[in-house]
Automatic annotation (TrEMBL):
UniProt protein name: Lipocalin family protein
Source taxonomy: Bacteria, Pseudomonadati, Bacteroidota, Flavobacteriia, Flavobacteriales
Entry-linked Pfam families: Lipocalin_4
Domain Lipocalin-like: from-to ranges: 30-121
Domain of life: Bacteria
Amino acid sequence: MQNLKRILLIISLITFFNCSKKKEDYTQYLNGYWEIKHVTLNNGTEKSYKINETVDYIQILNDSVGVRKKMKPKFDGTYSTTNFQEKFTFNLSENGLELNYKTPYYSWKETIQSISKSEMTVVNDNKDVYLYKRYQPIKLD
């Protein structure tokens, strides 16, 4: 019985340390330009995006606040945008990094389930899954 308790404790500790993520594991790659690559709606419908007219610019401002802007890339490497930006707060949950948006008209949550230098998976309140890729500007010679 004592050996079984030790084995269960060891398994629990290994699982905890392997599964626990820190906020920095998500936020270290978040800043920058992202474009939607693929969406799977909660009803199973899938849509791939070959070309995006706009990209999302995301910037972490401090330990719990960030902003998101829609940007329209131009062929000369610059971007056009409005001054409108959505502020969000973020916190770590068991599902990933939660981004909580609130405007005078609406509030919603998105959860970043995974992120790397080049890709990000986001789930919204409707359980739609968005696969983003890091935006690479079009370079014309």
